[in-house]
Predict the 3D structure of the following.
Amino acid sequence: GTFASDEPTAEVLEACRRLPDWHFYVTGSLKKAPRNLVEQVPPNVTFTDFMARPNYVGLVQAMDGAIVLVKNDNVMQRGAYEAMSWAVPIVTSDWPLLRETFCRGTLFVDNSPEQIVGAVRQFVERQEFFRSEIRRLQEERAARWEAEIARINRFLAEAS
């Protein structure tokens, strides 16, 4: 996270507060975090601050799921792409672009604490299903990219 104004960070922290049996990691540079959020963090939340890439990758790969939300439509989620690339199921905002892009292994919420809590509980109850589905999405996306690369290579070969 970047603690940007289009991220519902307060809502995520409230959802975490309602799920005291789970531990959550919030990534992103604390320099950009609103002080009131940092000072009122629930005990089951760890702010990671900025992490070196190997540490960040290790953290993401070890997660049961990634909560990557945005308040505005037509915003692509880099964090969701990262989670998908490491086969980590996703909770993201219910916007058409995100529904189209992350059509498997993903739960969509209206950014309210209630729906975030519900999504986390669904992940726990159906963890293997969501892992399987995000792997499937990952494979579909890789196949699509490979087909595009082959098409571009054919075009370049014909042009030379």
Notes: DSSP finds seven helices and five strands in the chain. The first strand starts at residue 24 and ends at 27. The domain at 9-159 is CATH 3.40.50.2000 (Rossmann fold).
